[in-house]
Write a structure and sequence with these properties.
By secondary structure, this protein is an alpha+beta fold. The protein contains 16 helices and 20 strands. The strands form 5 sheets. It has a 5-stranded antiparallel sheet. The structure holds flavin-adenine dinucleotide and FE2/S2 (inorganic) cluster (2 copies).
């Protein structure tokens, strides 16, 4: 039975998750697969929740159960295999980790670029590579890069594991080759061939938006000859696609702008774009040609550069193993303990209650604001285990065992003295409105914890999901740089 509801257009209140479902936690891959089987195809796995929670709020999917896989040990690891140089990425590796990972940046720069292009730091910190692929969107930004890299996907089901090439994974919008009782556990990237590189380009309406069109190129050159070229695009067909006719044109040729223009013309012929709310088919064909030419020029140049050897292995991201498995059934409530601003709070919650509602309505921490409710404005940002996350997309029951900090937790609990970030914002008169400022402060706290001395560009990039068009940005950037100086430059 399909879990797609027919009446999505009737649902308008993105502040609530109205549907009821069982909340289950899996402690192992086998348990997750068994739970998928138990619900006969009507359960959904919860990774970062940045697609699933939005789809559920919109009632585009109405699963009978949500199975949280974040407590399965090892699923967020990123490891190089010394035997063949391949990179093994756990399905729960976050987009933010991949964006900053030295092995990804050095060996697979196109993947790092694709991850850096995601809507906001918060979406990067919550969203996972596995979720990006399994959502099955033609606009998934990591998909074109994985296609040109020839990634292999490890899928676990009741009969064991199978390996599927990524080009066989995407079937149609929202539909992948995953069986209802299967989960993706790992993505394997082959070792980069000597002299090869990857490039990713994206055209979007604004930073916090999905692609009108995206493009990835894998390119190898020897002297002036192109020895290998693979091209893939997203958002220009029902699934992310390879452009093999253009690839065949390039192989064995000397690179020239005229050759790149011809490849661009072929690409624009071979895609099958549609008109939708992000773009028109006409524009997508035009931009596909231009992106191909830009991408080939960039790849040609990058393939000629010598790149640093991959750094040593790097630890994984913030998905850590937590408390024992738990569950809350649809219609039931359960008493949970949340750790908020250094204190313990016990609250009764149903599976469909969001952390933001619990913080605001039960714990009276109304500094965290509700605005869009679907991940786009970042007004609801809190820190969860030190990472900036969107509390409007987090199930309260999934936050057990995590350290949550809200804007009320920034001031010194003993003296009430404001945090230096708050002081710096006051000193620079760096305010957005009352809805946006708390989220901005929380994201700035995470930024300075992660990058104590950020450059101006890093500040703008990290805060891109919070900065609202209503206000001047210069004073905000100045305040963050001042706060950085206060934190790291001057002793107390
Ligand atoms: C404001 C905003 C901006 C965004 N910007 C971008 C963007 O720029 N580019 C982009 O590509 N995407 C973007 N997204 C979409 C989303 O953030 C990404 O697709 C993200 O990587 C999804 O990962 P997740 O862990 O949050 O997935 P979830 O929401 O947890 O899961 C998504 C789907 O995959 C299934 N699933 C998850 N993990 C597995 C697994 N291991 N095995 C089997 N099934 C699984 C879930 O059941 C669900 O159906 C944006 C979303 C928002 C809200
Ligand atoms: S209210 Fe959460 S991102 Fe807008
Ligand atoms: S809506 Fe808050 S500053 Fe624009």
């Amino acid at each position: 039975m399909s879990d797609h509801a027919p009446h999505a257009q009737n649902i308008t209140n993105s502040h609530l998750l109205v549907q009821e479902f069982d909340y289950r936690e899996a402690a192992s891959v086998e348990e997750a697969v068994a739970l998928l089987g138990e619900y006969g195809g009507r359960a959904r796995l919860l990774a970062g929740g940045t697609d699933l929670m939005v789809m559920m709020k919109m009632e585009r999917v109405t699963p009978a159960a949500v199975v949280n896989i974040n407590k399965i040990p090892g699923l967020a690891e990123i490891k190089a295999d010394p035997r063949d140089g391949s990179l093994h990425i756990g399905a729960l590796a976050t987009i933010h980790t991949l964006h900053n990972h030295p092995l990804v940046q050095s060996g697979y720069p196109g993947l790092a670029e694709a991850c850096a292009s995601f809507g906001s730091t918060q979406v990067e910190a919550m969203g996972t590579l596995g979720g990006n692929l399994c959502n099955g969107s033609p606009a998934a930004d990591t998909a074109p890069v994985l296609l040109v890299l020839g990634a292999q996907l490890v899928l676990a089901g009741p009969l064991g594991r199978r390996i599927l090439p990524v080009e066989k994974f995407f079937l149609k919008p929202g539909k992948t080759a995953l069986q209802p009782d299967e989960m993706l556990t790992e993505i394997i990237l082959p070792a980069p061939a000597p002299g090869s590189t990857t490039v990713f380009l994206k055209a979007a309406r604004v930073a916090a938006d999905l692609a009108k069109a995206s493009l990835a190129i894998l390119f190898a050159r020897q002297g002036t000859t192109i020895t290998a070229a693979r091209i893939a695009m997203g958002s220009v067909a029902p699934t992310p696609i390879r452009l093999e006719r253009a690839e065949a044109l390039l192989a064995g040729q000397a690179y020239t702008p005229e050759l790149a223009a011809e490849a661009g013309r072929i690409v624009s012929e071979d895609i099958s774009p549609i008109d939708d709310n992000r773009s028109t088919a006409w524009y997508r064909r035009r931009i596909a040609s231009a992106m191909t030419q830009d991408g080939l020029a960039a790849a040609w140049e990058r393939a000629g550069e010598s790149r640093a050897a991959p750094a040593a292995d790097f630890p994984s991201n913030g998905h850590r193993t937590l408390a024992p498995t738990s569950e809350v059934r649809a219609g039931e409530r359960k008493e949970i303990e949340l750790h908020v601003n250094g204190r313990k709070a016990r609250v009764w919650v149903a599976p469909n209650e969001l952390l933001l509602n619990v913080l605001r309505e039960r714990l009276e921490l109304t500094g965290t604001k509700y605005a869009c409710g679907i991940g786009e404005c970042s007004a609801c940002t809190v820190q969860i285990d030190g990472k900036p996350m969107l509390s409007c997309l987090v199930l309260a029951v999934s936050a057990v065992g995590k350290e949550i900090v809200t804007v009320e937790g920034l001031a010194d609990p003993g003296t009430g003295a404001l945090d230096r970030v708050q002081e710096a914002f006051i000193d620079s008169t760096a305010f957005q409105c009352g809805y946006c400022t708390p989220g901005l402060l929380m994201t700035t706290k995470s930024l300075l914890a992660e990058i104590p001395q950020p450059s101006e560009d890093q500040v703008r990039q990290y805060l891109r999901g919070n900065i609202c068009r209503c206000t001047g940005y210069a004073s905000i950037v100045r305040a963050v740089l001042d706060a950085a100086e206060k934190v790291t430059g001057r002793p107390e």
